[in-house]
Amino acid sequence: MNSKIIFGTDGWRGAIAEDYTFENVRRCTQGFSDYLLKEGFKGKWIVVGYDKRFLSEFFARTVCEVLVGNGMKAYLTDGATPTPVISYAVVDKKASGAVNITASHNPPVDNGFKVRDSNGGAIPPDDLKMIESLIPDTDLNVKQLAYDECIKNGDVVVFDASVNYITHLADLIDLEPIKKAGLTVMVDAMWGNGAEWFTRLLSGGKTKIIEIHNTRNPIFPEMKRPEPIPPNINVGLKATTDNNADILLITDGDADRVGIGDENGVFINQLQVYALLAYYLLEIRKQRGTIVKTLSTTSMLEKLGKLYDVPVIETGVGFKYVAPKMVETDAMIGGEESGGYAFRGNVPERDGILAGLFMLDFMVKTGKKPSELLAELFSKIGAHYYDRVDTAFSGDKSARQKAILDAKPETIGGIKVTGLNTTDGYKFELEDGGWLLIRFSGTEAIMRVYCETTQQDKVQSILQDGLRIAGLA
After folding, report:
1. 370 & 402 share domain
2. If DSSP codes are grouped into helix, strand and coil, which group holds residue 16?
3. Which H or E run includes 150?
4. How many domains does the chain have?
5. Contact 452/427 with Cβ under 8 angstroms?
6. Domain range for residue 442?
7. What proportion of the chain, given as a percentage, has pLDDT over 90?
8. Same domain, yes or no: 375 and 447
9. pLDDT at 396
10. H or E stretch including 186?
11. What is the C-alpha separation between 423 and 421, in angstroms, rounded?
C-alpha cells in the first residue's frame, strides 16, 4: 500500500521520484476523476497545464490519460503555462475544472498537483477532503487510456491558452500608456512560467523590458527556490540598480505570485504590495467592493477599508478559502501573505502577471516610482513593518500546538497582547494594531512565525518571542 496523499493549502506536493511518482499522479488523478463523476461531469472537458519543472509535461500527459480513461476529455496546454492563464482557460473553454502540474515556489526537488473548479479558482476545503478520500491506495484499479490514443480519438486537444488570456487582459487594463511611458522594467522570471510574458505584452513602445532567469532550468540556479522573497531575489535586485531600472517585477515558478523591488533595488514586501494594489484600485481606479484577505496578511487593509468605507473579510490561509469568498462577495480584490493577489473581473485565482501590470499602471497614472508610492500609502495609513521566519520541525505536532496555547504571553516584543485568534494557526493580536502569527505549513514540515507591527524597531524582538513561544528558540 502506498502512503496516503494529503492535500495542503493548495493541492498535493511531494519530492520527485520519492513520493511524487507517475504511480501516485495516476492515483491522485483517479481520485479527482471520481470526484468529477460524483459531481456529474462525465463527458465534460478538464483543462490540464504544467510548469517547467523536471518531467512536468509527462506528468501532465499522465493526468490526461487517466481523465480520459474515466470518461472525461482534456484540453492540454501546448507548453509550460502560467497558473492564471490555465485558470482563465477553464472559464474561456467552459470547462468543468483543471489540473495543474506545478509545485509553484517549492524547492527544485518537488512537483505538485493543483486542482481547480469551474470558476478557475481553488476548490473549497470540504471538496478537497472529498477528493482525498477518493484517492485509491494503489494504482491497480486506475482507469487509463494511452496518450496517443487519446489524441487520435480527439479526447485530448492540445491548445495555446495564451491568446484568449491576452485578449481578456484588454478588458482589465489598457497596456498602451505603459508601453509609451518609457519605463525600464526589470523582470525576474525565476526560471519559471512567467518568462517572456511582460516582454510579449509590453513590447513595441518606449518602455524597455529586461528579463533575467527566463529560460527553463529546473534546478533554479542563483536562488534556493522560485519564491519571490529574499534571498531568492537578490540577483534581481542587484540587476535593477545595475540597469537603472524603474521597478523589478518577480514572478514565481508558476507565475501566480508577484514580488516587487523598487527603483533603488529595495524589496517591497508582499504585505506592502497587497496594500499598494488595494490602494491603487480604490484611489486611482475608483473601484469599490469587498477586500478578502487571509489572517496572515496585512492589517493595512482594515485601515484602507475604514478610509474608503469598504468591507474587509478575513479568512484562513490559502486560496481554497479566499477564492470561494471572492465569488460569494464579488470581491474587488483577494490576496494572501505569500504574494498572491486576485482581482474582480478576472478568475478568482492569483495572477502575478496582472498584478505586475497593475503596479506598472499605478506608476504611469501617478508619475511616481515604487518607493514614492509606498511613501504615499504610509502617509495615508501609517508605516507597517513585516518579517517571517520559517523553521523545519520534527516530533509531535499536537504537543507543539498545546505548548503554544499554554504559553499565554502577556507581552510579545514588549507590546501588550490583546487577543488570540485560532482560526488558522495562532495569531496573537498586539496593542499597537500589529500581530504575531505562528502557523504550521500546509505543504511542508515547517513552522512559520510571522509578524507585522507599526514599530520598525520591534520586528525582530516580536519574531524572537514568537520562536520561543513555538519552542523553536
Report:
1. no
2. strand
3. helix 147-153
4. 4
5. no
6. 385-469
7. 91
8. no
9. 81
10. strand 184-188
11. 6
Q: What are the distances in angstroms from CA 295 to CA 104, 298, 317, 365, 407? A: 21, 8, 7, 31, 21
In the chain, % of residues over pLDDT 70: 99
Q: What is the DSSP letter of 5?
A: P
Choice among 159-168, 197-206, 443-452 with the minimum mean pLDDT:
443-452
Which residue carries 507565475 as its cell? Answer: 255
* pTM attached to this predicted model: 0.94
CA angle 361, 192, 265 (to 5 degrees): 50
Q: Which amino acid makes up residue 162?
A: S
Residue 231, preceding bond cis, omega within 30 degrees?
A: yes
How far apart CA 233 and CA 239 sit, in angstroms, is: 10
Number of H helices, E strands in the chain: 16, 21
CB of 188 closer than 8 Å to CB of 105: no
CA-CA distance, 263 to 370, in Å (whole number)?
Answer: 7
Looking at the structure, tell me whether residues 156 and 22 fall in a common domain. yes
pLDDT in tens, 64-78: 999 999 999 999 999
Collapsed DSSP state (helix, strand, coil) of residue 396: coil
Q: What is the pLDDT of residues 209-241, one digit of tens each?
A: 999 999 999 999 999 999 999 999 999 999 999
Which candidate, 124, 121, 71, places its Cα nearest to that of 100?
121
- The Cα–Cα gap between 160 and 99 comes to 16
Cα gap 121→421, rounded to integer Å: 26
